[in-house]
Structures are given as structure tokens and as C-alpha cells.
Design brief:
A hairpin with a 6-residue loop joins strand 1 and strand 2. This protein is 0% helix and 11% strand. The chain has one domain. Strands 1-2 form a two-stranded antiparallel ribbon. By secondary structure, it is largely without helices or strands. 11% of the residues are buried. It contains no helices and two strands. It binds zinc ion.
């Protein structure tokens, strides 16, 4: 099983930390608590901002 959102980079909504590199990060989780600030980020397609061509 691969990533639920391949190629998507996740950043904390509160402190802008790069979440993909945090220990235990798994985009199959629906909520990821930032290990830096403790903010609970929602990991869902609604939070992906795609750059349009
Ligand atoms: Zn954070």
C-alpha cells in the first residue's frame, strides 16, 4: 500500500512545519498531530490546494 495522497506535501496549519518528515507520519491517518506544536491537522483531500496550470 502506498500513500493515500501520493506526491502531496503536508504542512502544519499552525506552525508550517513539514509534516511528511515527522516521525510516524502516515497520510492514511485522518488527523495528524504536529510533533512540533501539537496542532491537529486534518489530512484530507479538502485540505489539498492544487496549483492549476
Ligand atoms: Zn505545528
Amino acid at each position: 500500500m502506498g500513500d493515500r495522497f501520493p506526491g502531496i506535501e503536508w504542512y502544519c496549519d499552525s506552525c508550517d512545519e513539514y509534516l511528511n518528515n515527522q516521525a510516524g507520519f502516515d497520510d492514511h491517518k485522518y488527523i495528524w498531530q504536529c510533533t512540533e506544536c501539537g496542532y491537529k491537522n486534518s489530512i484530507s483531500s479538502a485540505n489539498i490546494f492544487e496549483v492549476e496550470d
